[in-house]
């Protein structure tokens, strides 16, 4: 009887050792796959496999250390990304101002935001939030370049540019504007500030009017009615007038801005 019990015990021991060896082999395989994901910075897949390893071998300190490392990386990424988003919002607000000090602060803050974003992106490039914010950071970089260009202008030059803009706006607001003259003025603005968005749009509208006089008159009529309706808070018919503008000139920035304000 004792002999039979011994044989049964020995069989169970062998089976347990075989199962333990199988689990160890499974853990090693999952660890190898997880490490490959980690090396490619695919942290969610890596940590999922390492957590499975811990379920099989709860006392495996080496796997525990790897899990802790992933959490540390993701926490560092989250903190850095939050700083980048905060500085992004501050920078965009500052860069829209005309004061030189505010512009300089916006440039500095914006550069910090981009630097932190790049750091966070390198930590976890597969993160969805990081990819969603990429376009925002590109726009911020463009805003910074425009602000730097504005700062390079002397106060006297900026005053001259603003005077030219006023002259061009006044000409275009006349009942019978001279669009050739207005275009020439906008060109003079662009010689000072090549990327000035208002001047580029003004020049485009002048050229459109010169080439499409009848269409431009229709646009002026639609815009006049739309603005009047908008000011009277009749937003639905106002939106219709602005959409008529876009049906003639789909790039008309002022009409698009009004529609965005209504929506």
Percentage of residues assigned to helices: over 70%
Distance between the termini: 88 Å
Radius of gyration: 32 Å
The parts where pLDDT drops under 50 for at least 5 residues are 6-22
Q: How many structural domains can be distinguished in the coordinates? A: 4
Question: How would you describe the shape?
Answer: elongated
Main sheet, how many strands, which sense, barrel? none
How would you spell out the order of helices and strands? HHHHHHHHHHHH
Helix and strand topology:
Blueprint (H helix, E strand, L loop, with lengths): L1 H38 L3 H14 L4 H35 L4 H24 L4 H5 L1 H19 L2 H19 L5 H14 L4 H15 L1 H19 L3 H14 L4 H10 L1
Helix pairs in contact: 1-2, 2-3, 3-4, 3-6, 4-6, 7-8, 8-9, 9-10, 10-11, 11-12
Can you walk me through this structure?
The structure is a single chain. The chain is mainly alpha-helical. The protein folds into 4 domains: 16-74; 82-152; 153-211, no CATH class; 214-263. Helices cover 86% and strands 0% of the residues. The protein is built from 12 helices and no strands. The protein has helices at residues 2-39, 43-56, 61-95, 100-123, 128-132, 134-152, 155-173, 179-192, 197-211, 213-231, 235-248, 253-262. The chain starts with a helix and ends with a helix.
Summarize the structure.
With 263 residues, the chain is an all-alpha fold.
């Amino acid at each position: 009887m004792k002999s039979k019990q011994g044989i049964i015990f020995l069989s169970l021991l062998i089976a347990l050792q075989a199962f333990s060896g199988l689990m160890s082999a499974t853990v090693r395989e999952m660890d190898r796959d997880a490490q490959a994901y980690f090396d490619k910075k695919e942290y969610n897949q890596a940590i999922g496999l390492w957590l499975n390893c811990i379920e099989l071998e709860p006392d495996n300190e080496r796997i525990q250390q790897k899990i802790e490392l992933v959490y540390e990386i993701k926490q560092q990424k989250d903190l850095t990304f939050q700083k980048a988003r905060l500085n992004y919002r501050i920078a965009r607000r500052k860069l829209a101002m005309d004061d030189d000090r505010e512009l300089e602060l916006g440039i500095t803050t914006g550069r910090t935001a981009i630097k932190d974003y790049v750091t966070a992106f390198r930590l976890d490039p597969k993160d969805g939030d990081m990819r969603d914010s990429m376009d925002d950071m590109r726009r911020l970089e463009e805003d910074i370049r425009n602000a730097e260009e504005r700062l390079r202008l002397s106060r006297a030059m900026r005053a001259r540019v603003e005077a030219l803009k006023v002259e061009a706006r006044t000409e275009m607001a006349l009942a019978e504007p001279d669009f050739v003259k207005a275009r020439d003025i906008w060109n003079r603005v662009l010689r000072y500030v090549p990327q000035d968005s208002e001047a580029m749009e003004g020049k485009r509208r002048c050229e459109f009017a010169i080439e499409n006089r009848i269409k431009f008159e229709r646009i002026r009529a639609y815009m006049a009615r739309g603005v009047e309706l908008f000011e009277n808070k009749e937003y639905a018919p106002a939106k219709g007038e602005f959409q008529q503008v876009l049906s003639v000139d789909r790039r008309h920035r002022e009409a698009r801005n009004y529609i965005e304000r209504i929506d």
